[in-house]
Design goal:
The protein is mainly α. Helix content is 72%, strand content 0%.
């Protein structure tokens, strides 16, 4: 009996020690396949790796990550429920890694964060919160045990910046779960991890992923660092994810034609995971400079998407498309669809509903499309203050008019004129709109640049006080980051 028990224990010990993390060439190909959405190739790679190296848990990590990405961007809750048991199995295998291996906590935390995003999409907020809590604790413990382990720094840095930029009331709730965010520390961690991945050949596996996160977080927080995937010398055209992030940055810099070309030429076809959202985003860009192309992409999104997110927003852009063509009846039909479509938590849908309720103003729609396309001089010419009363007498019209004029001056480098018009836009305190909220944010940032921290702080706090308009979360995030920068 003693010998049998000893043999069983020995086998258990051997099994536990056999679980390992090995970044083989197969696994390097696997992470590249995920970035490029080559899911057919990914499946073949995982099958091959499990035959050659069955105890390598990197294959389980990659499969779990790919599954969460697929659910978040493509599939519905029914599909997720059918795959949930598989995801549980993969997580259980990752938990089998020895606790002395720092990759165990990183893999489990990253999969937890990915799964939390899926639960958030399906409005299972309690489950999402619990997984965030688990991920945060795993990463914090790992950081204490292995402070120089670069892979911990990326997900922990993302959590630090995300929690650190929350508005104060949400931040206090987050603190109850043990979250203690710090934007500057988070950015430092992400930057450090990326440059570690360049310097250390052992971290080559992580380099593209770290670079994507590094560029994305800096873009989202509007930091002074000029970081893009192109500047990091990454293969932007080889990945739809990379193309999407770079297109956002190009669009923010008024390079609309390049953004559209990048999205239209992104890798796709047989063997690639079809992501309907990319058609939505391509149609949105096309509406700015090639409206004749926009309808095809927007309708294709509606035909292929499996959930309700971005439907209201798509109907909005189709309404604009028909208004630009002078087809008011078709525009009216799409406006009605916005009002009838089920509500979602997506900012673009909330904004579309707000705009549909108050009615579309073709004059301001054209100015908005001109701005997104980088036609700043045209906006200043068209948005002559002498004309403002002729395009509408509602308060939101005045807010949008002066906000859009201010943003055009800002992009052209006329900061004094921009500040003047942002202040003008903010003189209508109601209704709460994105134009008003972002005007307050931009005023704060301009005062910060001018060396006036007192006024800057005042306007950052004003921006944080408005909460009932779509996309206020992004404004609040930047306002919190701004307050942290002030002396």
């Amino acid at each position: 009996m003693h010998k049998i028990l000893s043999t069983i224990l020995a086998l258990c010990a051997f099994t536990a020690s056999a679980q390992k993390v090995e970044f083989s060439s197969n696994m390097q190909d696997g992470i590249n396949a995920i970035a490029e959405l080559r899911y057919t190739d990914l499946n073949s790679i995982l099958v091959q790796e499990r035959k050659l190296n069955p105890e390598n848990r990197v294959s389980d990590y990659l499969e779990a990550a790919a599954l969460c990405i697929q659910v978040f961007f493509v599939e519905d809750e029914k599909f997720y429920n059918s795959k949930s048991e598989r995801l549980d199995f993969l997580i259980e295998r990752l938990e089998g890694l020895p606790e002395s291996d720092p990759y165990r906590a990183v893999f489990l935390a990253e999969v937890s964060l990915a799964r939390a995003g899926v639960y958030g999409k399906f409005k299972s907020n309690i489950k999402a919160a619990w997984l965030f809590y688990r991920a945060y604790n795993l990463l914090q413990d790992n950081y204490k045990k292995f402070p120089q382990f670069a892979p911990t720094l990326i997900p922990l840095g993302v959590l630090q910046t995300a929690v650190g930029s929350l508005p104060e009331d949400y931040k206090s709730i987050a603190s109850l779960f043990g979250f203690d965010g710090n934007i500057e520390l988070g950015l430092k961690m992400i930057r450090q991890a990326y440059y570690y991945s360049i310097a250390d050949p052992k971290l080559k596996f992580h380099q593209s992923y770290f670079g994507f996160v590094y560029a994305y977080v800096n873009f989202e927080l509007a930091t002074e660092e000029q970081v893009s995937l192109y500047t990091l010398d990454m293969n932007v055209k080889g990945s739809s994810f990379f193309s999407y992030l770079e297109a956002q940055q190009l669009l923010a810099n008024g390079q609309t034609t390049m953004a559209l070309q990048l999205m239209e030429n992104r890798p796709q076809g047989p063997g690639y995971l079809k992501v309907p959202f990319f058609d939505y985003y391509t149609g949105k860009i096309a509406l700015m400079i090639r409206p004749e192309k926009a309808e095809k992409y927007l309708l294709n999104f509606l035909q292929t998407t499996r959930d309700n997110e971005n439907r209201k927003s798509t109907y909005r852009y189709l309404a604009w498309y028909h208004l630009l063509k002078g087809e008011s009846a078709a525009a009216k039909d799409y406006r009605q669809k916005i009002l009838l479509e089920p509500s979602t938590l997506t900012g673009s849908d909330k904004q579309a509903l707000e705009e549909a309720k108050r009615g579309f103003n073709i004059f301001l729609i054209k100015a908005r499309l001109d701005f997104d396309a980088g036609r700043y001089t045209k906006i200043i010419k068209d948005l002559d203050p002498k004309k403002v009363s002729s395009i509408g007498d509602e308060d939101w019209v005045y807010q949008e008019f002066y906000y859009r004029r201010a943003r055009a001056f800002q992009e052209l480098g006329f900061k004094d004129k921009a500040l003047e018009n942002f202040l003008k836009a903010s003189s209508w305190p109601e209704p709460e709109t994105y134009s008003l909220g972002n005007s307050l944010l931009q005023i704060a940032m301009l005062y910060e640049e001018n060396g006036n921290p007192k006024e800057s702080r005042r306007y950052f706090l004003k921006a944080l006080s408005l909460k009932s308009y779509a996309f206020h979360e992004g404004v609040h995030q930047k306002a919190r980051a701004g307050l942290e920068r002030l002396p």
